[in-house]
Amino acid sequence: MSDIEVNGIKLEMENPQSAEALSSGEPAVVAPAGSQRYRMIFSGTAGEYFRIWMVNLFLTVLTCGIFAAWAKVRSRRYLYARTLLAGQPFDYMANPWFIFKGNLIVGAGILLYLFADTYNQLYSSGVLLAFYLVLPFLICKSLRFNAYNSAYRNIRFRFYGSLKESYGIYLLLPILIPLTLGLIVPFWMYRRKKYFFQNFSYGATRNSFEGNAGAFYRTYGLAGLVSMVFLGIGVAGFLGFVSFVEDISIQPAGLSRAIVLIPIISYVVMMVYFTLVQQYIFGRVTNYCWAQTRAGTLQFQSRLEIRKLMWIRLTNILAIFISFGLLIPWAKIRRTRYILNSLTIISERSLDEYSAAAEADQSAIGEVTTDFFDIAIGI
Amino acid sequence: MIEFKGTYFDGRSSKAYAVSIQSDGQRIRIAGNADGLPLLFPLGKCRLTPPLGRTRRSILLPNGGRCDTADLRAFGKLESLKGDNRILRLVNFFESRWRLVVGCLAGLIACVWMFTAHGIPFAAKKVAYSLPPETMESVSERTLQALDDGFFKPSALSQKKADHLQNIFRQLIADVDSGFHYRLVLRSSPRAGPNAFALPSGIIVMTDELVKLAENDRELIAILVHETAHVENRHGLRMLFQNTGVFLLISVLAGDVASITSIAATLPTILVESGYSRQFEREADLAAGMILVGKGWGTRPLQTVLQRLSEKQPEFSGPAAMSTHPQTRKRISYLQDLEASLTR
Ligand SMILES: [Zn+2]
């Protein structure tokens, strides 16, 4: 079509008449006739990313964390640059100095918390409370900062989510979770995803999100049901073991060893199980959210397979364990590749015809803070 | 003259234009088949993105436009002409050579070792000593309260015995002379068994079980001296800061995957922290040993009570690196060596 071949990089286009979407059980994306399908292609390699990661990690530790901001921009720039859509890469354009300033503020906050904690736990609770009060602000700022600094074909993304909505989602709803015995967790997740997917824009092209909370209740409901069964089996197994131990009085040494092993084994089983549930929810929610999102006439199709996600996550964790962390970059590339390569963009218009939005500057403090405290606000 | 092919984006629309880029080191010219082209800019007004692996490079133009190119060699020439990104070029030089990357791994391991073995303990000590002794009072009181609520019962010792212990303790701390408000707290705890520990503000807790385990006053004094040494050397506060340092270091190392690998990250944390704890025990044993030798008793009272304690409690059977207290045999032989070197 109108896309050109640039510098020998060929575009990959799928057959527009692909009917796979309808057979996959996921909410089907019905592509209008004549539209083009573009697969997202992640071409990062573990070796290249490992080298970047290692050098930057070394510099970060060597400089007592000062280089962390530059390291972060470099690693994110790499992941973006290796993500191709219709032959063109994405760009991450954040200025490391902004992130550095954010890091300083976060560092000061942590020191304040620690000192308050050694004097009087009442003060440190105050610091923690203050943190929860600014968190929605930081999340909103962080989303804006990251969107603004992400670009495709030299057109920046934008995030239009309001501060008010962020406070509703990240301050008000979490308070209601214990009051409703956790029943609003799927709704909370829905609101978070909606906040994310609905408020993005590519240049002047705003997203819209048609999803509803029902799909989230179904996903969480199934996960909850399976967890109940699993927990039942676990309790029954434990009781069985206890009665077994009581029946056959094994010699003390063997018994004490077995008792030491119980918490370890049950901990590992629990962690594996939580990982699997997490992947199930992640896969279902991601597929659903993309299917419900439109950007102008653009449609998205994410076809993550739950079993593959689970397999990748479990083997990644195992690999990171036995390699003493050296395989972290490999694991990250592997998972990113699977997730991004499962995403297809369906467009009626040529990708050449999108235009930029009006300019505005955004501060960076949000960006790092949320990252440091590791709040999963991403896709 | 440098010349290469690229893709131009004007920053207003997503349209890609195939262009050719020329530069003489002073100016840059972008020519191609589109409206508004060719463009001419002074090179000093343009920004070049830093090198990163084998990914495409870009020229950010003063008009908001951007030229991407996969011709890394020509771009590199332009960059050295312009003199941009000196530090990140060096970083990229390291990143693109496996041998240097392995060097960085070695450097990283050395740095982490230096930090955990020296840097963090040194900094923690500096900070701990710069704080007034009253700092930990409120936290210590709370800790004791929490232990009282869940763990301890009031002491069942006779009033006479308790008074005697308080007397011994008062004489002991009269020698120490420091800013700490010392207090001996007696509690009964069948669950904890024979035990004693110091809270950072100077509260020393001893269980009835331990008092009964000791065969004479000297052994009790040996324990109390060991505990006051923990307080005097600010081990509680230092431990807190050191553990914070290790936590921060491991967070940096694990990066943003910290959440998935949290299980993996706890193991090194436990190893490092139990190492710190064993060091503090040794330090307290050293201080206690010196005082006991000074009293002319030798280190025997501490040795015998440690021996009896370890017989009472099953020795930690895991790997030595994970136990918080150095194994009793090691501690006793350390005390013997200490006495030998002091009385020679
Ligand atoms: Zn001790």
Q: What is the tally of beta strands of chain B? A: 11
Cofactors and ligands present? Answer: zinc ion
Oligomer: heterodimer
The N- to C-terminal Cα distance of chain B equals 82 Å
Helical fraction of chain B equals 55-70%
Structural class of chain A: alpha+beta
- Overall form of chain A: globular
Beta-strand percent range of chain A: 5-15%
| Rg on CA atoms of chain B, Å | 33 Å
Mean residue pLDDT of chain A:
80
Straight-line N-to-C gap of chain A: 30 Å
Q: What is the structural class of chain B?
A: alpha+beta
Low-pLDDT segments of chain B = 315-319
Q: What letter string, H or E per element, gives the SSE order of chain B? A: EEEEEEEHHHHEHEEEHHHHHH
Spatial strand sequence of the major β-sheet of chain B = 4-3-2-1-7-6-5
Q: What is the chain-wise order of helices and strands of chain A?
A: HEHHEEHHEEHHEEHHEEHHEH
Q: How many structural units, i.e. domains of chain A?
A: 1
Q: Outline the low-pLDDT stretches of chain A.
A: 1-27, 361-379
Layout: helices, strands, pairs:
The complex is a heterodimer of chains A (379) and B (344).
Chain A: H1 20-23, E1 36-42, H2 46-62, H3 68-81, E2 83-85, E3 88-92, H4 96-119, H5 121-148, E4 150-152, E5 155-159, H6 163-179, H7 185-198, E6 200-202, E7 205-209, H8 213-247, H9 252-291, E8 293-295, E9 298-302, H10 306-322, H11 328-341, E10 343-347, H12 365-372
Antiparallel strand pairs in A: 1-2, 1-10, 2-3, 3-4, 4-5, 5-6, 6-7, 7-8, 8-9, 9-10
Chain B: E1 2-9, E2 17-23, E3 27-32, E4 39-42, E5 47-48, E6 57-60, E7 66-69, H1 72-82, H2 86-95, H3 98-130, H4 137-150, E8 153-154, H5 159-176, E9 183-188, E10 196-198, E11 203-207, H6 208-213, H7 217-232, H8 235-254, H9 262-294, H10 300-312, H11 328-343
The structure holds zinc ion (ZN).
